[in-house]
Write a structure and sequence with these properties.
Blueprint lengths: L17 H8 L9 H6 L3 H17 L4 H14 L3 H13 L4 H7 L10 H16 L4 H8 L4 H24 L13
Length: 184
């Protein structure tokens, strides 16, 4: 973690007002609300609006879940967002990414073992991260198998998780209990 202490403490449950409680109760998983949500609860209106977009990207986009998670994990790695990486290593495994592949994401699109499509996804994340642009070569590779909606969702997925990574890193959101971070 870049910061060992949060700059903005997650809001304790006893401090939740009615609006915050209504918002966070819907996000409770196995009895707890993740640190990212309790931290962003400092600004309930922002959290509420961001969740609409975030839920689209995570649950309703046209991308196959495995592809989405490759993009998210690569973006989290490039941003050195350990919180994001740890959470999505878990989600990525559920989406069909093997532990070996999760580790290989750190090496990038030129690591041995990626098929052309997966390498193009990782390269798209790299290019968007470093240049805010996808090259013609990568675009054309992905356009050969993706619909227009999937291409748009790819761009917005990387953008969403770049934004989230910036917030997590800057705010110092700490790993949730049981999440391994970069050691996943």
């Amino acid at each position: 973690m870049r910061l060992t202490q949060p700059r903005l403490e997650p809001l304790p449950e006893e401090s939740w007002d009615d609006e915050t409680r209504e918002l966070l109760e819907r996000l409770r998983v196995e009895g707890r609300v993740f640190n990212i949500f309790r931290t962003l609860a400092a600004h309930p209106k922002l959290l509420k609006q961001w969740l609409v977009f975030g839920n689209y990207i995570l649950y309703k986009s046209a991308l196959p879940p495995r592809d989405r998670e490759l993009l998210i994990l690569r973006t989290g790695w490039l941003s050195q967002a350990e919180y994001e990486w740890g959470q999505h290593a878990v989600i990525g495994k559920r989406a069909g990414i093997s532990p070996a592949e999760i580790n290989r994401i750190k090496e990038g699109p030129d690591a041995p073992g990626w098929n052309e499509h997966d390498a193009a996804l990782l390269r798209a994340a790299d290019e968007l991260h470093s240049q805010a642009f996808i090259s013609d070569t990568v675009w054309n590779t992905l356009a050969a198998s993706y619909s227009t909606q999937q291409l748009l969702d790819l761009i917005f997925t990387v953008g969403q998780y770049n934004l989230v990574s910036m917030a997590l890193n800057t705010l110092g959101v700490q790993l949730d209990e049981g999440v391994a971070g970069f050691e996943s």
